[in-house]
């Protein structure tokens, strides 16, 4: 019969394993690459006293064992987290690492994380997604009729997403149904000469469904030698693109749309300030839709603005999407990491994730995939263009992270040097004070 001490040790180990599994699963749900999840879980495990913790993360869940050969716990990641929930997750992790939260309280906080209600309410979330799509339209297709249609179409898409919440079977159909609905309206308006450039109008309407983050995270995981996770994310992202493209293709078939309507045509903006207004609307929509805390708004907006400017610079320097995508991803990765250091309450992913709506690799993929239905002869060119843009973004993320890490190491070295210098000055001052004191042991 096991002793009470043994039972107590087993109970403590089980609780620690559950905590690490819940933490890792929440990080996976927050769209962290699996190599970052594994590194962070191991770091927390070392703090808890388990230096040999074994961790295996996948896009769908995580396995955790405290020692080699010990029992393991598997935890599913479940649905994705909002930026507000990611902020709470970061707070729990920081409190664990600082010793301000015990394991039982941390487990309770992590298990109730998903029940956290939207900060601004359900309808604010729907309107936030609509405003975000309108902002994307102001950047991608800044025509009056186009932006008005995107506002209506994206509101319908947000209603469909809200209706499908908790209905897994219907949610699977959402990409195709939403793409068909938005495309049907855009093609109908274009056929009646009420709208120009329908393809670039459809994309902002369904931007909330684009798997850009999934595709780029998959490429980053492949670059980090996590082939299983990277390949599965890429496959999932490509399937989502195909579902969206299928909906658009069916709408085009119903409306008998000519091939010319699939052209990548951008209307002229009625105001030179419209892209800036679009960026501001996009920032506002993301903040409201994902319930970002008020105090974090300037930081998230700052990263978005920096990413936008980097992409503009890339377009001026290279004239191609690859250079623009690389610079945008580099700046987004570097600035989001820097912001998380300057503002400890800001998780890096909260500052970084909104940048995916600007980089929009999913938009290029959807546009190219849809064109294949009209012109199958472009298959090789299309596949190469998608791969090169995704690779450019993935490399930008990796170089941005590496550059920030180099700066971080340099700053830490400088802090240590300054601390040693202060310590030497303190020792020298103490020696001078001691030397200035009279020697009381000397005879009078």
TrEMBL record:
Region (Disordered): 421-444
Residue span, Threonine/serine exporter-like N-terminal domain: 19-252
Keywords: Membrane, Transmembrane, Transmembrane helix
Ranges annotated as spanning the membrane: 120-140, 146-164, 176-196, 202-222, 234-255, 267-289, 296-314, 326-343, 355-374, 380-407
Biased composition (Basic residues): 421-435
GO molecular function, one term: transmembrane transporter activity
Membership in a protein family: Belongs to the ThrE exporter (TC 2.A.79) family.
Protein name as it appears in the record: Uncharacterized membrane protein YjjP (DUF1212 family)
Species name: Propioniferax innocua
């Amino acid at each position: 019969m096991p002793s009470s001490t043994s039972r107590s040790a087993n109970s403590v180990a089980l609780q620690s394993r559950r905590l690490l599994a819940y933490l890792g699963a929440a990080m996976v749900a927050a769209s962290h690459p699996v190599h970052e999840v594994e590194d962070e879980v191991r770091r927390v495990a070392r703090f808890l006293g388990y230096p040999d913790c074994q961790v295996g993360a996948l896009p769908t869940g995580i396995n955790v064992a405290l020692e080699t050969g010990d029992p393991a716990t598997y935890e599913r990641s479940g649905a994705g987290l909002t930026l507000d929930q990611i902020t709470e997750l970061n707070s729990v992790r920081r409190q664990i690492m600082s010793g301000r939260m015990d394991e039982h309280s941390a487990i309770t906080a992590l298990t109730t994380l998903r029940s956290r209600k939207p900060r601004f309410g359900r309808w604010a979330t729907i309107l936030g997604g609509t405003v975000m799509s309108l902002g994307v339209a102001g950047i991608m297709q800044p025509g009056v009729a186009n932006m008005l249609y995107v506002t209506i179409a994206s509101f319908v898409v947000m209603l469909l997403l809200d209706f499908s919440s908790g209905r897994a079977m219907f949610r699977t159909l959402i990409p195709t149904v939403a793409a068909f609905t938005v495309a049907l309206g855009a093609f109908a308006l274009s056929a009646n000469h009420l709208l120009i450039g329908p393809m670039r109008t459809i994309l902002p309407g369904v931007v909330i469904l684009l798997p850009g983050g999934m595709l780029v995270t998959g490429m980053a995981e492949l670059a980090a030698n996590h082939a299983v996770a990277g390949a599965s994310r890429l496959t999932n992202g490509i399937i989502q693109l195909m579902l969206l493209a299928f909906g658009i293709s069916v709408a085009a078939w119903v409306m008998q749309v000519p091939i010319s309507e699939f052209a990548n045509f951008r209307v002229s903006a009625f105001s030179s300030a419209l892209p800036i207004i679009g960026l501001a609307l996009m920032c506002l929509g993301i903040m409201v839709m994902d319930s970002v805390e008020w105090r974090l708004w300037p930081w998230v907006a700052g990263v978005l603005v920096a990413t936008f400017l980097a992409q503009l610079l890339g377009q001026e320097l290279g004239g191609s999407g690859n250079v623009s995508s690389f610079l945008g991803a580099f700046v987004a990765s570097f600035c989001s990491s820097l912001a998380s250091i300057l503002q400890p309450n800001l998780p890096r992913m909260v500052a970084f994730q909104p940048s995916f709506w600007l980089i929009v690799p999913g938009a290029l993929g959807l546009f190219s995939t849809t064109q294949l239905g009209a012109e199958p002869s472009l298959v090789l060119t299309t596949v190469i263009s998608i791969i090169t843009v995704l690779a450019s973004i993935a490399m930008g993320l990796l170089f941005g992270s590496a550059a920030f890490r180099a700066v971080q190491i340099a700053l830490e070295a400088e802090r240590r040097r300054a601390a040693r210098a202060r310590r030497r000055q303190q020792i020298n001052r103490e020696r001078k004070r001691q030397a200035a004191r009279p020697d009381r042991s000397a005879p009078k």
